[in-house]
Write a sequence for this structure.
């Protein structure tokens, strides 16, 4: 097919559409009724992510559908999948949109999350704290991103405040991991099952929001690369995944600790636009369109990606005069604290 449907109009969808255009594809974006859509050279359908009729209309004008975020209603997507190929599969989306389902699934494949307990209601939280211990992190099972829907629990006395802070359950309680480093595996699996992945960036988060991704990662990360990449491969295989799959890890004392996964292109892969031979966006498009995957090697000796968070275009302009800096602005109409407005990548050759 020659028209790609993208569910979601954020920066990930925008960068996917740019990569698709380079390969000669047209894009049709499905975006929510409310909120501004990022302007890309693409057609739009407006609707809600659980609106089966609007999604059906969308399905009729595209040849393959992909998504840039996880919070699409699975049943509405199932209707869509009856009419047009959805890649990655709904199974990947359903697993990744629920932290409890995701952890169970990954544990079956030999992955090791931090000790955790499902928390259905307020009473279950006390039992979970007794089981998992403190310090711990309470997270809503669904809809969290950029550290939203999370609260720290330093001592059992924090339970009420944390429960209130996340707006109640269902939730999951995780032991707090006292890590020195975080990293991610960004993998891409093609339509015929061929799989490749990028070198793992060292990711630094501030207030739960990704701040920087740096390559090559320090030796502590490199030492856990093989094991983490093997788990990512098993996850992709088990889901019969097509497209990019990103897995976040903490460097643990006894090997990689699984944090979470995303069945889509990922912020910790933005460095690949200039820093890798084929970007994650192009490789995702190649995968969902059944094309051969492109090479993933670095284009330089080191790469650094910096997120522009809560900055306006004027603030980002200072990077335009930095030699070797590639400035990406997402065209969002309004800057807010904590909002990802763009990113800058620097490749040292
Ligand atoms: P994303 O935008 O990546 O989807 P998210 O809202 O799903 O973020 P997480 O990845 O669960 O959030 O957590 C965000 C960050 O908070 C992590 O990258 C890490 O820095 C910190 N964090 C989360 N869980 C833990 C934990 N159990 N122990 C220590 N730090 C944690
Ligand atoms: Mg997440
Ligand atoms: Mg995360």
């Amino acid at each position: 097919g020659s028209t790609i449907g993208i569910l979601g109009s954020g920066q990930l969808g925008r960068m996917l559409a740019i990569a698709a255009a380079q390969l000669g594809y047209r894009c049709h974006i499905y975006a929510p009724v409310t909120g501004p859509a990022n302007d890309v050279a693409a057609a739009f359908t407006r609707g809600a992510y659980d609106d089966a009729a609007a999604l059906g209309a969308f399905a009729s004008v595209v040849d393959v559908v992909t998504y840039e975020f996880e919070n699409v209603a699975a049943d509405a997507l199932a209707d869509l999948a009856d009419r047009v190929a959805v890649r990655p599969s709904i199974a990947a989306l359903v697993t990744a949109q629920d932290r409890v389902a995701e952890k169970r699934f990954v544990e079956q494949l030999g992955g090791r999350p931090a000790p955790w307990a499902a928390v259905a209601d307020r009473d279950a939280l006390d039992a979970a704290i007794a089981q998992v211990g403190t310090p711990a992190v309470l997270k809503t099972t669904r809809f969290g991103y950029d550290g939203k829907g999370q609260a720290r629990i330093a001592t059992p006395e924090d339970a009420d405040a944390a429960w209130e802070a996340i707006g109640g359950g269902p939730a999951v309680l995780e032991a707090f991991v006292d890590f020195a480093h975080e990293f991610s595996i960004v993998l891409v699996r093609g339509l015929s099952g061929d799989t490749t992945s990028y070198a793992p960036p060292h990711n630094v988060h501030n207030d739960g929001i990704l701040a920087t991704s740096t390559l090559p990662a320090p030796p502590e990360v490199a030492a856990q690369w093989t094991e983490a990449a093997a788990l990512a491969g098993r996850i992709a295989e088990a889901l019969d995944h097509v497209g990019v799959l990103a897995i976040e890890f903490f460097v643990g004392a006894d090997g990689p600790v699984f944090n979470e996964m995303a069945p889509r292109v990922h912020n910790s892969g933005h460095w690949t636009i200039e820093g890798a031979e084929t970007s994650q966006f192009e490789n995702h498009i190649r995968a969902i369109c059944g094309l051969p995957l492109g090479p993933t090697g670095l284009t330089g000796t080191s790469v650094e990606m910096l997120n522009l968070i809560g900055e306006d275009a004027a603030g980002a302009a200072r990077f335009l005069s930095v030699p070797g800096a590639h400035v990406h602005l997402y065209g969002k109409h309004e800057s807010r604290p904590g909002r990802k407005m763009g990113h800058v990548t620097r490749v040292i050759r």
About this structure: The longest helix spans residues 219-238. The pocket of magnesium ion (ligand 2) is lined by residues 144-145, 260 (CB under 6 Å). The mean pLDDT is 94.
